[in-house]
Specification:
Strand content: over 45%
Largest sheet: 5 strands, antiparallel
Radius of gyration: 37 Å
Number of strands: 26
Order of helices and strands: HEEEEEEEEEEEEEEEEEEEEEEEEEE
Length: about 300
């Protein structure tokens, strides 16, 4: 009987606790809050406003302003709202209460901060003169802004928003960077673009053959732009046919890299009526592809050169 009474008391205790918990839950109050959302998206992609408590989301496209008056039920007196990317990365969040405003500016991904409270702007001054043979392209923070033709000048003042600096780049049609500078607020970008100039200081002849069985060749190389000679090497006396030949201490300027650049190999011999006989040659109509390379190989089936030099 004693054991039975203990069991009854235990069941009554469990029931009492359950009623107490239920009573507490029923006493939790749900309140209604009203708040305002104001989001400006300066980022170069769509962002998403979200409410954490109920999973609400709203997309905001690039360069758009989003406003929304909301009413939500809450047991905590606030709701958690914010802005995130399509990847799920949260850029900002805040606990908003009744009567408050969630106002945020989403900045570009290269700005100092992901978000800010207001919009601040400044003018970036760009002065660009293009004396090169081809059109060049102006990029600001990775985005193409202008095309500047040959012999043209550009004056341009884009507005920079919510960032203290901007990356300015000048590229050619192949995307090669001709000039680059990070411009801070209050500074300017002033640049003149000329055709790159390459100065050859050494040529190594690694493959060639005179097919001459009568004497030991004396090779030398002539460099031309559009069939006009702009420089030559000295000849190397009595070298073995096809052996590696190095022509050093050169100073041959290639200042028209968008034209045909030719390298012609000759065998020097006073016995020839011209003083030399042509052995082989190679040429390039895309010499600009070697831009910024201090050494590169040019070759054909019969001839191969390694060119060394500097760009300016």
């Amino acid at each position: 009987m004693k054991k039975f009474n203990q069991i009854v008391k235990y069941l009554l205790l469990v029931l009492a606790v359950g009623l107490t918990v239920t009573s507490c839950k029923e006493e939790e109050e749900t309140t209604t809050i009203n708040f305002h959302v104001d989001i400006t998206n300066l980022r170069d992609e769509t962002v998403y406003f979200f409410i954490e408590e109920d999973g609400t989301t709203q997309s905001i496209q690039s360069e758009k302003v989003f406003t929304w008056d909301l009413t939500k039920e809450t047991q905590t007196g606030y709701v958690t709202v914010g802005v995130k990317l399509a990847s799920g990365k949260i850029l900002d969040w805040e606990e908003v209460r009744n009567g408050e405003i969630y106002s945020v500016v989403v900045n570009k991904d290269n700005s100092d901060t992901n978000v800010s409270d207001e919009i601040e702007t400044w003018k970036l001054i760009v002065e660009l003169t293009n004396y090169s043979s081809n059109s060049v392209y102006l990029y600001i923070d990775g985005e193409q802004k202008k095309i500047i033709g040959s012999e043209q000048k550009l004056s341009y003042s884009p507005t920079i928003t919510n960032q203290t600096k901007a990356l300015v780049e000048i590229k050619n049609a192949e995307g090669v960077i001709l000039s680059s500078k990070t411009v801070k607020k209050g500074e300017s970008f002033v640049e003149t673009i000329n055709d790159p100039v390459f100065t050859i200081n050494k040529i190594v002849l690694t493959k060639w053959d005179t097919d001459n069985i009568f004497d030991t060749p004396d090779p030398w190389i002539k460099v031309s732009i559009n069939d006009i000679a702009v420089g030559r090497t000295n000849y190397l006396s009595d070298v073995n046919d096809g052996s590696l030949c190095t022509f050093s201490n050169l100073s041959i300027k290639i200042d028209q890299i968008y034209n045909t650049i030719a390298f012609d190999l000759y065998d020097y011999d006073t016995g020839y009526s011209s003083g030399s006989v042509y052995i082989s040659g190679l040429y390039s109509t895309k010499f600009d592809t070697y831009w910024k390379k201090n050494s590169f190989t040019m070759k054909t089936a019969n001839m191969e050169l390694i060119i060394y030099g500097t760009w300016e």
